[in-house]
Write a structure and sequence with these properties.
This protein is mainly α. Helix content is 78%, strand content 0%. α3 crosses α4.
Protein backbone atom coordinates (compact mmCIF):
# COMPACT_ATOMS: atom_id res chain seq x y z
CA UNK A 1 0.00 0.00 0.00
CA UNK A 2 1.42 3.40 -0.98
CA UNK A 3 0.90 6.47 1.20
CA UNK A 4 1.86 10.11 0.84
CA UNK A 5 5.40 10.72 2.17
CA UNK A 6 4.29 12.39 5.44
CA UNK A 7 1.80 9.61 6.21
CA UNK A 8 4.45 7.01 5.34
CA UNK A 9 6.95 8.75 7.64
CA UNK A 10 4.45 8.90 10.50
CA UNK A 11 3.59 5.20 10.18
CA UNK A 12 7.18 4.04 9.74
CA UNK A 13 8.63 6.04 12.61
CA UNK A 14 5.75 5.27 14.97
CA UNK A 15 6.24 1.55 14.43
CA UNK A 16 10.04 1.87 14.75
CA UNK A 17 9.58 3.84 17.95
CA UNK A 18 7.86 0.92 19.64
CA UNK A 19 10.74 -1.39 18.74
CA UNK A 20 13.52 0.93 19.85
CA UNK A 21 14.75 -1.33 22.63
CA UNK A 22 18.23 0.00 23.33
CA UNK A 23 17.64 3.42 21.81
CA UNK A 24 17.08 4.93 18.41
CA UNK A 25 20.22 3.37 16.93
CA UNK A 26 18.77 -0.08 17.55
CA UNK A 27 16.19 0.62 14.85
CA UNK A 28 18.74 1.46 12.14
CA UNK A 29 18.58 -1.92 10.34
CA UNK A 30 14.81 -1.67 9.92
CA UNK A 31 15.03 2.05 9.17
CA UNK A 32 17.54 1.25 6.41
CA UNK A 33 15.24 -1.41 5.00
CA UNK A 34 12.27 0.96 5.02
CA UNK A 35 14.04 4.06 3.67
CA UNK A 36 16.34 2.41 1.10
CA UNK A 37 14.80 -0.91 0.06
CA UNK A 38 11.04 -0.50 0.54
CA UNK A 39 10.25 3.20 0.02
CA UNK A 40 13.37 4.03 -2.03
CA UNK A 41 13.59 7.49 -0.50
CA UNK A 42 17.41 7.35 -0.59
CA UNK A 43 20.35 5.15 -1.50
CA UNK A 44 22.88 3.45 0.78
CA UNK A 45 25.37 6.30 0.58
CA UNK A 46 22.79 8.93 1.53
CA UNK A 47 21.57 6.78 4.42
CA UNK A 48 25.11 6.30 5.72
CA UNK A 49 25.85 10.01 5.33
CA UNK A 50 22.75 11.04 7.29
CA UNK A 51 23.61 8.60 10.08
CA UNK A 52 27.20 9.88 10.17
CA UNK A 53 25.98 13.49 10.29
CA UNK A 54 23.61 12.67 13.15
CA UNK A 55 26.38 10.93 15.08
CA UNK A 56 28.68 13.94 14.81
CA UNK A 57 26.02 16.36 16.03
CA UNK A 58 25.68 16.91 19.76
CA UNK A 59 22.54 15.60 21.35
CA UNK A 60 20.51 12.40 21.33
CA UNK A 61 20.88 9.67 18.72
CA UNK A 62 17.25 10.13 17.71
CA UNK A 63 18.39 13.14 15.65
CA UNK A 64 19.04 10.71 12.79
CA UNK A 65 15.27 10.24 12.47
CA UNK A 66 14.81 14.00 12.18
CA UNK A 67 17.44 14.15 9.44
CA UNK A 68 15.74 11.33 7.53
CA UNK A 69 12.43 13.20 7.70
CA UNK A 70 14.11 16.44 6.60
CA UNK A 71 15.75 14.68 3.63
CA UNK A 72 12.45 13.19 2.50
CA UNK A 73 9.93 15.99 3.11
CA UNK A 74 11.68 19.11 4.39
CA UNK A 75 10.62 20.79 7.64
CA UNK A 76 7.26 18.99 7.74
CA UNK A 77 9.07 15.66 7.34
CA UNK A 78 11.44 16.58 10.16
CA UNK A 79 8.52 17.34 12.49
CA UNK A 80 6.56 14.21 11.54
CA UNK A 81 9.56 11.86 11.78
CA UNK A 82 10.67 13.31 15.12
CA UNK A 83 7.19 13.18 16.65
CA UNK A 84 6.59 9.70 15.23
CA UNK A 85 9.81 8.42 16.75
CA UNK A 86 9.47 10.10 20.14
CA UNK A 87 5.76 10.06 21.02
CA UNK A 88 4.84 6.33 20.93
CA UNK A 89 7.95 5.16 22.80
CA UNK A 90 7.54 7.93 25.37
CA UNK A 91 3.97 6.90 26.11
CA UNK A 92 5.03 3.25 26.30
CA UNK A 93 7.97 4.08 28.59
CA UNK A 94 5.73 6.09 30.90
CA UNK A 95 3.19 3.26 31.13
CA UNK A 96 5.92 0.64 31.59
CA UNK A 97 7.63 2.60 34.35
CA UNK A 98 4.37 2.94 36.25
CA UNK A 99 3.70 -0.78 35.84
CA UNK A 100 7.26 -1.74 36.83
CA UNK A 101 7.02 0.40 39.93
CA UNK A 102 3.67 -1.12 40.87
CA UNK A 103 4.79 -4.71 40.28
CA UNK A 104 8.51 -4.31 41.11
CA UNK A 105 8.57 -7.35 43.39
CA UNK A 106 7.18 -9.60 40.66
CA UNK A 107 9.41 -12.30 39.20
CA UNK A 108 7.92 -11.57 35.76
CA UNK A 109 9.20 -7.99 35.88
CA UNK A 110 12.67 -9.22 36.89
CA UNK A 111 12.74 -11.73 33.99
CA UNK A 112 11.51 -9.10 31.56
CA UNK A 113 14.25 -6.66 32.59
CA UNK A 114 16.91 -9.38 32.19
CA UNK A 115 15.53 -10.41 28.78
CA UNK A 116 15.58 -6.90 27.33
CA UNK A 117 19.35 -6.40 27.80
CA UNK A 118 20.49 -9.04 25.25
CA UNK A 119 17.79 -7.91 22.83
CA UNK A 120 19.17 -4.36 22.99
CA UNK A 121 22.73 -5.61 22.43
CA UNK A 122 21.63 -7.71 19.45
CA UNK A 123 19.80 -4.79 17.88
CA UNK A 124 22.84 -2.55 18.35
CA UNK A 125 25.10 -5.15 16.69
CA UNK A 126 22.67 -5.42 13.78
CA UNK A 127 22.77 -1.62 13.44
CA UNK A 128 26.54 -1.68 13.20
CA UNK A 129 26.43 -4.38 10.53
CA UNK A 130 23.86 -2.50 8.43
CA UNK A 131 25.82 0.74 8.66
CA UNK A 132 29.07 -1.00 7.75
CA UNK A 133 27.46 -2.60 4.71
CA UNK A 134 25.94 0.72 3.62
CA UNK A 135 29.15 2.73 4.07
CA UNK A 136 31.84 0.26 3.00
CA UNK A 137 32.26 0.59 -0.74
CA UNK A 138 35.94 -0.18 -1.30
CA UNK A 139 38.87 -2.06 0.10
CA UNK A 140 40.12 0.85 2.21
CA UNK A 141 36.78 1.48 3.94
CA UNK A 142 36.33 -2.23 4.60
CA UNK A 143 39.84 -2.40 6.12
CA UNK A 144 39.13 0.67 8.27
CA UNK A 145 35.85 -0.80 9.50
CA UNK A 146 37.49 -4.13 10.30
CA UNK A 147 40.38 -2.40 12.07
CA UNK A 148 38.07 -0.25 14.17
CA UNK A 149 35.93 -3.27 15.03
CA UNK A 150 38.98 -5.17 16.23
CA UNK A 151 40.34 -2.16 18.12
CA UNK A 152 37.03 -1.62 19.92
CA UNK A 153 36.30 -5.28 20.55
CA UNK A 154 39.69 -6.58 21.59
CA UNK A 155 41.37 -3.69 23.38
CA UNK A 156 40.62 -1.06 25.97
CA UNK A 157 42.14 1.69 23.82
CA UNK A 158 39.99 4.80 23.58
CA UNK A 159 38.00 4.59 20.30
CA UNK A 160 38.85 8.22 19.55
CA UNK A 161 42.37 7.09 18.64
CA UNK A 162 40.93 4.67 16.09
CA UNK A 163 38.60 7.32 14.70
CA UNK A 164 41.50 9.77 14.35
CA UNK A 165 43.69 7.12 12.71
CA UNK A 166 40.88 6.19 10.33
CA UNK A 167 40.38 9.82 9.36
CA UNK A 168 44.11 10.22 8.67
CA UNK A 169 44.24 7.02 6.61
CA UNK A 170 41.16 8.10 4.63
CA UNK A 171 42.66 11.55 3.99
CA UNK A 172 45.97 10.03 2.88
CA UNK A 173 44.17 7.44 0.76
CA UNK A 174 42.08 10.12 -0.90
CA UNK A 175 45.14 12.26 -1.50
CA UNK A 176 46.96 9.38 -3.20
CA UNK A 177 43.93 8.20 -5.18
CA UNK A 178 42.99 5.11 -3.15
CA UNK A 179 39.40 3.98 -3.58
CA UNK A 180 37.35 4.72 -0.49
Amino acid sequence: MTYAPLTQLALTFSILSLGAVGGANATLPELHRQMVDVSRYMDDATFASLVALAQTAPGPNVIVMSLMGWHIAGAAGLAVATAGMIAPSSVLAFAAERSFRRFSASRTVWVLKKALAPIAVGLMCASGLVLARAADSGGLTIALTLGMTLLSGLTRINPLYGIAAGALVALAGGRFGASL
